[in-house]
Amino acid sequence: MLVLGIDVGKRELFVQLQDASGGWLGQRGPVANTPAGLQQLSHWISTFAPPEQVQVVMEATNVYWERCAHHFQALGCVVSVVNPAQIKYFARSVLRRGKTDAMDAELIARYGVVMHPGRWTPPSRALNDLKQLTRERLPVLVRRTQEHNYLQALQDAHYASETGVKLAQQRLDLVMEQLVEIEAAMHALIHADETLSQQLKLLLSVPGFAFVSAATMLAETVGFAQLETRREISAAAGLAPSPHQSGTKRGRGSISKTGNARLRRIAYLSALGEQGHTAECEPTIAICGIPASQPKWLWSRWDANS
Prior knowledge:
The protein is of the alpha/beta class. Helices cover 56% and strands 14% of the residues. The protein contains twelve helices and nine strands. The strands form three sheets. A five-stranded mixed sheet has the order 3-2-1-4-5. A two-stranded antiparallel ribbon has the order 6-9. α5 packs antiparallel against α6. The longest helix has 32 residues. It starts with a strand and ends with a helix. 29% of the residues are buried.
């Protein structure tokens, strides 16, 4: 199988094609990161092999990789989307000196040849929409707190302009309306999907989970599509223990924090919310892994259940 490494940019793509042994076959770039540019790139690739015999490897660069990944997946290529940190450390392992877009494309192709990354499967439309809604909700919450604090400061001032207070109240009301609209859309989206509804019901049966935290967990794990065990979920959230030991030295361990920060936040808050109910908290720990550093009894209970 041939490997196509793609360095994805906001406007341009750089690519290199290698055979199964890492031999150079060709490179292109810059190619416009547009439907027309992708079509031209597909035609060029077809001169070497049919889509089924090509593995396309790219980094998950913001949202700019999505059009490219969906395009090649629809063609029938094997698409692999990897964490940029994996490419970064792979470059260090091969003592890469220098950095250009063309060099990055070569490195990504080489990573695909050596590491054989797994196949990417696009999420369903419902899961994709749910992820966008849960991520949209967080900045709205932050904005609500900011506007509430600002309004309160105006109201507590010795003198405040009536117009200023009125405008601040209107902004707060608008943010509150958006928050209600987002949560209503999340409810409607999940209830319209039988699979998501069933998964949500199971998560809500775990102490510490409410609707928003359960919906966020589903969105960030893509419905647990590739996470089957609690250890895999813990690793994906960056909650897995990170020991620190060398020879006779025994340093203090911590969590790895190598994973999805949004998932880690939800997992930690859900476990922390049940810290006063030790017997009921075990299912939460089993799903979420270990919270950041407190409370200490959660560490011991995780170890006992591992």
